[in-house]
Amino acid sequence: MSISLLDFSKKLSSELLDLYPETEAQSLAAWLIEHHFGLKRIDGPTLLEEEKVPEKLQEDLARLKSGEPIQYILGKGPFYGREFLVTSATLIPRNETEELVHLIIKENKAANLRILDIGTGTGCIPISLALEMNSPDVYALDISEPALAIARKNAEVLGANVRFELCDILTQTPTVGKLDILVSNPPYVLESDKSQMHQNVLAHEPWTALFVTDEDPLIFYRVIAEKGRKILKPGGKLYFEIHESKGELVHALLASTGYVDVRILQDLNGKDRMCAAIWG
């Protein structure tokens, strides 16, 4: 039996309403259809044969209904105009981190800047910077070898020159020479906040990339800032993504560590989300 593309999309989204708000359900349905058929709703009054709908689409729909994020189901997610491979070893790239990348690009126009990203995950930050900035020299670290494998693959697929290294920033100091820019989106969600998080995040995304203890919530900011004093050039810049409730604390930490021109910046939703500072 034939069904219009629009009606088929509505049918899929209706099956997701128990778990997702209507707008998000519609977006997820459209994403599934585009992935499996290469079609978008704007393609017009296309007809589909329901009996020819791939079994894999139904399997993916069932996974969505279980709460699994669509990026893990499809193995990819968008970030700064590109698609990045994603697995359960990496966090899903998010819009807020795109804003951090955009800030760095906007504020740093010089050529040949040396950049390090700490806790790289999919590599979305350093790869985007490598491709968007003026001939930078880009490095990236992560504690997870499976995450680094995905990051290296993303760099290869997207044609970005980034050097990746396995490193536990809490116990090791990277040997990358003097830097112009140090950037990190480190773990910053309190363990006590787990109960407030969506189940699809808790059940599927890597906890080591998300959570810090309530006893030492700024541990990564403190350690990275301290090591930044050794590896940043005088006048080098430090950029962080931060928890919306920790802006004042991160600001005070950086100021007390010797950084100047410390700024807390808001995301598009008006929440404290980024911090920028200068060393020396």
TrEMBL record:
Q: Which residues bind S-adenosyl-L-methionine?
A: 119-123, 142, 185
Give all residue intervals belonging to the Release factor glutamine methyltransferase N-terminal domain.
23-75
Catalytic reactions of this protein: L-glutaminyl-[peptide chain release factor] + S-adenosyl-L-methionine = N(5)-methyl-L-glutaminyl-[peptide chain release factor] + S-adenosyl-L-homocysteine + H(+)
Q: Which organism is it from?
A: Algoriphagus oliviformis
UniProt entry keywords in alphabetical sequence: Methyltransferase, S-adenosyl-L-methionine, Transferase
How is this protein named in the record? Answer: Release factor glutamine methyltransferase
Q: What is its EC number?
A: 2.1.1.297
The organism's superkingdom is given as Bacteria
Example GO molecular function: peptide chain release factor N(5)-glutamine methyltransferase activity
Task: Say what the protein does.
Answer: Methylates the class 1 translation termination release factors RF1/PrfA and RF2/PrfB on the glutamine residue of the universally conserved GGQ motif.
What Pfam families does the entry give? Methyltransf_31, PrmC_N
